[in-house]
Amino acid sequence: MNTKIFKRNPELFIIGGLLGFSLLLGMDGIKSNLQQVSTIRAKVQEDSKIQMGLQASQQDAEVKAQIAEARYQAGCVVVVASNNQGFHTAISEGAPVLDGIRKTALPPNTIVCDADGNTAKLVPGTYRGSNTAIAWELAFTGNRAVIDAAIAQSKAQNKTPGQI
Questions:
Q1: pLDDT for residue 104
Q2: Distance (Å, rounded) from C-alpha 86 to C-alpha 145?
Q3: CB neighbours (10 Å) of residue 123?
Q4: Which of 1, 4, 103, 118 has its CA 20 to 30 A from that of 130?
């Protein structure tokens, strides 16, 4: 029966043989292409992971900016240099903020802010071996109008705590 098919359609067997032969010759190319596809797929997955991380970071920054603006508008205590109260200084996460006059740490739950857009909540903690309230839960805003309004108001109220 096989001979009848071959006699009727010899081209079919010739084409099939050529296809099989070309597949054998092209196996290296196919393997190479599969490896390239696998490499590209891994790169796309990595890029997607990075993109998702950036989006999450951006969303976190936006939420923290809203928190910081609310803190400024609610009347945060503006931080100035402890050794020269005429100059502003930045909040340092994990460090206490001192009352500029009494030189003692401000109490926990005080909301502090600086002239750079950083705000923090003082929480109970340890600094250089001592239990004290430290700056934590930092949030940043770049909204200069809100920051400048808080700085101007703090000067009128003479709030001048310092940070060590």
A1: 87
A2: 21
A3: 13
A4: 118
What pairing do the DSSP bridges indicate for beta strands 77-78 and 118-127? Answer: unpaired
Residue owning tokens 């940043």: 140
What is the amino acid identity at position 39? T
Give the integer Cα–Cα distance in Å for 99 and 107.
Answer: 9
Q: What is the pTM of this model?
A: 0.67
The Cα 87–Cα 114 span in angstroms is: 11
Bridge-based pairing state of the strands 118-127 and 111-113? antiparallel
- Residue 36: the pLDDT is 86
| Residues 34-87: tens digit of each pLDDT | 888 888 888 989 989 999 999 999 999 999 999 999 999 999 999 887 776 677
Distance CA 107, CA 97 (A): 9
d(CA 6, CA 13): 7
Q: Give the CB-side neighbour count of residue 8, counting CA atoms within 13 A.
A: 5
